[in-house]
Design a protein that fits this description.
Elements: H1 9-16, H2 23-43, H3 47-63, H4 70-77, H5 80-88, E1 126-135, E2 145-149, E3 169-173, E4 179-185, E5 190-191, H6 197-204, E6 210-211, E7 214-220, E8 227-233, E9 252-253, E10 255-257, E11 263-266, E12 269-271
Parallel strand pairs: 1-11, 1-12, 8-9
Antiparallel strand pairs: 1-4, 2-3, 2-7, 5-6, 7-8, 10-11
Helix pairs in contact: 1-2
Length: 276
């Protein structure tokens, strides 16, 4: 098609995707083109502004590596990650709610026995974590795999240190009655990495980079949907302004200080049966 104008270019671009063999891909790219073009028209995007956007995304790509995922941070801070989770993780009343995965999960975390200290020397006040894993009808989920990870008292995950030694993360399995317990460190609020383009975006828009204190959990068991979630520390000052929009009221728990100065947090997880 020749003589393209701002009035007909959108349909011309969509027409180029008409022969896309995968119907779902065709649906996605068609909608993407429509919304991108509508966005540009809505804000009357200038060429200089668009080149600024390209430069921003280029920087996001350059800073991303196997230890840092700036694209996930960008998605998280725009609320897109949590929107996707909310749309795809609707569960029956009573099931534990899902929340964002975050950029700090790693494969092949060390395995621990119940009762072990997964902090592995990470700085922080000792904390005991315990609870149970059940199904929606109250049945125990024996042997459920529990992957847990968290930031240390300095607000950093192990992978943010040069040594990359696994600390404050691990893999455990619930016992025969679905119970679990392990030792770790007190969850503290921390800022997401803000020394890159996402941090520049937050500062330009007068937003803070802080996440409320939490533990990450990923729980899997045969016959149940995988659960990716957090448990947040009650009383944290950032619960209502989480930089990545991940807080849910049902995921907030009390960290109770014990007579010895250490802490205890108890939380029960309820899994949703796997869908046919």
């Amino acid at each position: 098609m020749r003589n393209l104008t701002q009035d007909n270019i959108t349909q011309a671009v969509i027409a180029r995707f008409a022969d896309t063999p995968d119907p779902r891909l065709k649906e996605i790219v068609t909608s993407l083109v429509q919304h991108l073009h509508a966005f540009a028209r809505d804000v009357k995007l200038t060429e200089a502004e668009w080149f600024q956007g390209i430069e921003f995304l280029t920087r996001v790509g350059h800073i991303t590596d196997d230890k840092r995922q700036e694209f996930i941070l960008l998605s998280d801070t725009l609320g897109l990650s949590m929107l996707t989770v909310a749309m795809n993780q609707e569960k029956p009343q009573g099931c534990t709610e899902a929340t964002v995965f975050g950029p700090f999960f790693v494969e092949n975390a060390p395995s621990f026995d119940l009762g072990d200290d997964v902090s592995n020397g990470a700085p922080g006040i000792p904390c005991l974590v315990r609870g149970a894993i059940r199904g929606i009808n109250g049945e125990p989920v024996p042997g459920a795999e529990i992957q847990v990870w968290q930031a240390d008292a300095q607000g950093k995950y192990d992978m943010q240190y040069e040594s990359h030694e696994h600390k404050a993360r691990g893999v455990l399995h619930a016992d025969g009655k679905g119970h679990y317990h392990f030792r770790s460190i007190l969850a503290e609020a921390y800022p997401i990495p803000d020394d890159g383009p996402v941090g520049d975006m937050l500062r330009a828009t007068k937003r803070h980079p802080w996440r409320p204190a939490h533990l990450h959990f990923m729980i899997t068991a045969p016959g149940y949907e995988r659960l990716i979630t957090h448990v947040f520390r009650n009383g944290d000052s950032y619960l209502d302004s989480d930089a990545v929009f991940g807080v849910r009221q049902s995921l907030i728990a009390d960290w109770v200080q014990q007579p010895d100065g250490n802490y205890l947090v108890e939380y029960d997880f309820v899994l949703n049966p796997e869908r046919a």
